[in-house]
TrEMBL record:
EC class of the enzyme, as a word: transferase
Keywords on record: ATP-binding, Kinase, Nucleotide-binding, Phosphoprotein, Serine/threonine-protein kinase, Transferase
Cofactors that this protein relies on: Mg(2+)
Protein name: non-specific serine/threonine protein kinase
GO molecular function, one term: ATP binding
Species assigned in the record: Pristionchus pacificus
Gene Ontology BP annotations: behavioral response to nicotine; intracellular signal transduction; positive regulation of 3'-UTR-mediated mRNA stabilization; positive regulation of axon extension involved in regeneration; regulation of axon extension involved in axon guidance; regulation of presynapse assembly
EC number per UniProt: 2.7.11.1
Family note: Belongs to the protein kinase superfamily. CAMK Ser/Thr protein kinase family.
Catalyzed chemical reaction(s): L-seryl-[protein] + ATP = O-phospho-L-seryl-[protein] + ADP + H(+); L-threonyl-[protein] + ATP = O-phospho-L-threonyl-[protein] + ADP + H(+)
Pfam family for this entry, one: Pkinase
PANTHER family hit by this protein: SERINE/THREONINE-PROTEIN KINASE
Family matches, as SMART domains: S_TKc
Length: 351
């Protein structure tokens, strides 16, 4: 027996029921809501169900995800419904269930099987294909990271797909001032996102460069020496683009791979490669001729305790990810700012 949601149709869709298996199996946590497992009543087929509070930001996320979901490497949205859940108006997004896990977890689970640069290039080509599709539609994803890169199924037949459009935004005339909201996840954010200046969809290319770097060696190009998700030193290194290709991990990696990473991790967005240039780069184009020697990726992912590192990052996201729609400005009467209190006190004694 399952708990069934009687739902009202979203737009022109026919009324249906979605059954959530109790207790709902949590598949993941997106920026704006949880993703749980659900089951089709008639067929027993399992899907992923994202439950979002019905607010403009959630509707924007769904609109952009639906628009992009026809691509082979973007998680498909199958249906969207409106429904009241616990007296809160919600949007229920039914998506294909990704059975194969996250990108880096997949590499760690290979055991003794070697992971090679050739395989890394195939993975990056698929990820870049998804981003090329988004950028052709003037959509910036703004949160490209391993946790949002999922496989359809376990084993060699699994296909990698991009998900979670909680930070996605249009970059065309609907955003004439460019993107300004400081949305980011530590390790993957571009230098311009850390600053106050406007930015555009090229921020996705920086994130691709970071993912590619980790994919080829097992640790990030920018990290905090103190174990924090973000430190002043790490922020400084990101803004200055200070990273290296240390030995021995990078000794067997091709020069073409290093060249592409260098083109992606340009601190000036105007100098950074576009997604079309990435797709045309010789590293992406000559997959079968790339080295088949084992990389240190899996070993280093294990050494750096990647799951624990991800947990630490997730704990800080509430304070580090900023979106103007979420900002609540206190009134002066509510504020407990010490400098303001001092000024109030001084004003009382002034004649």
């Amino acid at each position: 027996m399952g708990n069934s949601f009687s739902v009202k149709p979203h737009k022109d869709k026919t009324t249906k029921k979605v059954t959530v298996v109790p207790p709902p199996k949590i598949l993941g946590v997106g920026i704006n809501g949880k993703v749980v497992e659900c089951e089709h009543r008639a067929t027993g087929e399992k899907y992923a169900l994202k439950v979002l509070r019905d607010v403009p930001k959630a509707r924007r996320e769904i609109e952009l995800h639906v628009a992009a979901s026809g691509h082979a490497h973007i998680v498909a949205v199958l249906d969207v419904y409106e429904n009241a859940y616990n007296d809160v108006q919600c949007l229920l997004v039914v998506m294909e269930k990704m059975e194969g896990g996250e990108l880096f977890a997949r590499i760690q689970e290979r055991g003794g099987t070697a992971f090679t640069e050739r395989e890394a290039a195939h993975i990056m080509r698929d990820i870049c294909g998804a981003v090329a599709h988004l950028h052709s539609m003037n959509i910036a994803h703004r949160d490209i990271k391993p946790e949002n890169l999922l496989y359809t199924e376990a084993g060699s037949r699994g296909q990698i797909k991009l998900t979670d459009f909680g930070f996605a935004k249009r970059t065309n005339e609907s955003e004439p001032q460019g993107l300004a909201t400081a949305c980011f996840t530590p390790y993957y954010c571009a230098p311009e996102v850390l600053g106050s200046e406007k930015y555009d969809k090229s921020c996705d290319l920086w994130s691709i460069g970071v993912v590619m770097y980790i994919l080829l060696c097992g640790y990030p190009p920018f990290f905090s020496a103190h174990g924090l998700p973000m430190s002043p030193g790490m922020k400084s290194r990101i803004k200055s683009g200070h990273y290296t290709f240390p030995s021995p991990e990078w000794d067997c990696v091709s020069q073409a791979a290093k060249d592409l990473i260098t083109k992606l991790l340009k601190t000036d967005p105007a100098e950074r490669y576009t997604i079309d240039q990435v797709m045309a780069h010789k590293w992406t184009q000559t997959l079968t001729r790339l080295p088949d020697t084992p990389l240190a990726t899996a070993v280093n992912l294990e050494k750096t305790e990647w799951p624990e590192m991800q947990d630490e990052m997730e704990k800080t996201l509430a304070s580090m990810r900023v979106d103007k729609e979420d900002i609540h400005i206190k009134s002066l009467a509510e504020s407990k700012n010490r400098l303001l209190e001092k000024r109030k006190a001084a004003a009382k004694v002034d004649p």
